[in-house]
Each structure stands twice: as structure tokens, then as C-alpha cells.
Amino acid sequence: MKLLITGGSGFIGSTLVLTALARGHEVVNLDALTYAANPNSLNAVRDNPAYRFEHADIRDSGALTRIFAEHQPDAVMHLAAESHVDRSIDGPQVFVDTNVGGTARLLQAATDYFKGLDAGRTARFRFHHVSTDEVYGSLGATGRFTETSHYRPNSPYAASKAAADMMVRAWHATYALPTLISNCSNNYGPRQFPEKLIPVVILSALKGAPIPVYGRGANVRDWLHVEDHADALLTILERGRIGEVYNVGGDAECSNLELVRLLCAELDRQHPRSGASSDQITFVTDRPGHDFRYAIDAAKLHGELGWSPRFTLADGLAQTVGWYLEHADWCQQCLARTDGENPLGRLGLG
Ligand code: NAD
């Protein structure tokens, strides 16, 4: 298939591009290259004839129409988004513009293109919207989110993704666009921008700086390795039922404090001279509206499509720590893309 992947220069997108190419798909990567992208993440495939890059913004309808006409994709996998909850609290408008407005424009361009396809290609076409479990809000100590859980988003980021999910649903019901939605738990792995928890912990620990943990570190997340997420996304695209929602999770719940301790222990194992230690943990004022716990019930994806994750949390964290230890240059490139605003500085890490 020829896949139009939006946000392919970001964290999950770059893993998806690499995985899709390895599986024999052709890929067109549409990305605006915001601060969150690192074009070097895809250096390995830059000259691959099955890979094309389009520097474009999903808020630009004209560009979207041209890209659909020029590349004639068989499917869209939509990942482009503003993705950082803390930034959405500081400045929500761009989250609404990109995640809601941009998704609406992309849906419309896809629908116009879809209507012009011949019968054979119409039957194959899919629009896969990649979303988050944060749309469901927060859980208490028990229970897990299923595909029928109520939407109760608590951050501007989660609300913008929830609105986008609703529009995808509406475009399916109203215009018969063949859509798929997946809602996934927290991802980790190589090439995650160093403003998200796991790379922040690794880089802070290596610098000998305080390791910031919100509140008392009791918030619980369900972690999934990004390569398992990419595998799930392609499985859903290839075999998912049109109009359906699939939850994706790793069955790997962990409190933030436990996670930070695991990372420090792994750093110490792989790089004993780094001096990284749990003693560096510093509790910082909790995020407003901070969801207590997320947990995903992925039974539908397991049962219907036979998908399951390959990484255990221990193996995945070991691989991730190893990657960051070997890619200090990649981290520096990311930090250089933030207009002098060092995301570690945002967290009081200097
Ligand atoms: P990311 O911030 O690393 O990457 C986002 C990419 O989108 C960047 O390459 C950026 O340049 C691009 N982009 C942003 N605005 C754009 C625009 N207007 N036009 C075109 N491109 C634009 O994000 P990520 O962590 O890789 O997340 C990808 C998707 O997966 C997002 O939709 C996110 O909501 C969803 N998701 C993420 C997680 C997670 O744990 N990271 C979990 C579940 C779902």
C-alpha cells in the first residue's frame, strides 16, 4: 500500500515510517517540522525510493489537496498533532488549531479525494486516526478503559484529541469515509523528544541534575514500547473493521516514581560511571488537572486482530536507555529546535 503518514518526523511517526517501509509499504511523510520533529530521525531512509517527504501543514487545505492528487495514497495514517500536555496548559490555542482544525481539514481533503476514486480503490481506502487514552480522563485505583468508556478529557491536549476523534466518527457516519480510530496508552522508546518524562529523566540523571517528578510520583501510566505501537497501528490498518475503535496498551502499569527508579537502576547498570541515582529525584508542584491513572483494556485488539506487544517493560526500558546513551547528538539537535527555550529548563533543570 501507499501510505500517507502525517507527523512522520515525530516520535511515533518516525517509528511508524521505518516499520511500514520495512514491511514493504510505500510511504509519503507529511510533516510541518515543528519544534517536536527531528528530520534526522529518518536519515536512514532519505534515499529510499519507497519514501517521499512533503513539508506541509495539515491546516493548509490547498497543500493537502495537492498532496492527495499528486501521491494518490491507498490510506492515511494521521499522527500529526501538538502532543505535549504541559505545553497545552501553557498555550492551548495551537492545540485546538492543529489537533482540531488541522484534523478537520485533513478529513475534508481525504473525503474529497476518496469520492473521486474508482470502485476498486474505494474498497481499499482507509483513514486511520491515531489517538490517545487521555480522551477517557482519569481512573481510580481499579478498572481499565475499554472502547465504550465515556470521554472525559481533562487537559486541553486531551480535549483537542477527543474533539478530533469525534470528527473522525462524524465523517464516517456522514460522508461514509472508511475510518479507523485507535486510542493508545503512553509510548516510550527511541527518538522521543526530550521534554517527555522518560527522556527528561535519562538526560537529567546523566547531567547530575534534579530529576523532576510531579506531586509524589503516585500517578500511574500504562506504558507501551513505540515499536509495539507501530506494529499495532499497521495491524489495525490492514485488518481492522471500518468504523471501529481499537484500544492499544501494553499491560505494563507503573507509577511515575517506580518508573524513574527503574530508569536510574538501568542507567547505573549500563553506564555505572554516570553516577545516575534515585537520590536526584525531586518532587515538583503537580500538573493542574493531572489524571491519576490510565489503564487500557486491549482485549478487542488481542482477540479480534491477534495483536500483542513483544517488549516487556524491563526489556523496552533497557533498549531505550541504551539508545539515549548512544544518541547524545540527536538530543542536542532536538534542544536546538526549541528557539533557545530549553525544555529541561522549563522543568527547572537548567
Ligand atoms: P510528536 O510531538 O513527537 O510528533 C508530532 C509530529 O507532528 C511532529 O513531527 C510535528 O512536526 C508534526 N506536526 C505538528 N503539527 C503539525 C501540523 N500542523 N502539520 C503537520 N505536521 C505537524 O508526537 P508523538 O508523541 O509522536 O505522537 C504522535 C501522535 O500519536 C499524536 O497524534 C498523539 O496524540 C498520538 N499519541 C501519542 C502518544 C504518546 O505517548 N506519545 C500516545 C497515544 C497517542
Blueprint of the fold:
Blueprint: E1 2-6, H1 11-22, E2 26-31, E3 51-55, H2 61-71, E4 75-78, H3 85-90, H4 93-115, H5 119-124, E5 126-132, H6 156-175, E6 179-184, E7 186-188, H7 197-207, E8 211-214, E9 220-225, H8 226-239, E10 245-248, E11 253-255, H9 256-270, E12 281-284, H10 299-305, H11 313-326, H12 328-336, H13 343-346
Parallel strand pairs: 1-2, 1-4, 2-3, 4-5, 5-6, 6-10, 7-9, 8-12
Antiparallel strand pairs: 9-11
Helix pairs in contact: 1-8, 2-4, 4-6, 7-9, 9-11
The protein binds nicotinamide-adenine-dinucleotide.
What report would you give on this structure?
The protein is an alpha/beta fold. It has a domain at 2-191 and 225-251 and 293-311: Rossmann fold. The protein has 13 helices and twelve strands. Strand 1 (2-6), helix 1 and strand 2 (26-31) form a beta-alpha-beta unit. The mean pLDDT is 95. The protein binds nicotinamide-adenine-dinucleotide.
